[in-house]
Amino acid sequence: LLEASGRRAIFYPNFHCKLNFIEGFWCSAKYYARENCQHSLEGLQETIPMPL
Predict the structure, then answer these.
(1) CA within 20 to 30 Å of 18's CA: 12, 26, 29, 49, which one?
(2) What is the predicted pLDDT for the residue at 2?
């Protein structure tokens, strides 16, 4: 089905988060949120969309 539409599926080895792009991105987004929020619910709600 994927090949018929001209797309490819890439499967990563299990439990190898260093090989998966989204894991590195998610790590950076969490770090940004930790460093830039005011440690309140309102501050977190304002900060989370910024790195995404």
Answers:
(1) 49
(2) 73
Could you count the other beta carbons within 10 Å of the beta carbon of residue 4?
6
Torsion 13-26-18-7 (CA) sign: positive
Q: What amino acid occupies position 29?
A: A
- Output the CA–CA distances (angstroms, integers) from residue 45 to 17, 25, 35, 37, in the order listed: 27, 19, 14, 9
CA–CA dist 32, 16 (Å, integer): 23
36 vs 39: CA distance, rounded Å: 9
pLDDT tens sequence across 10-48: 777 777 767 777 888 888 998 998 898 888 888 888 888
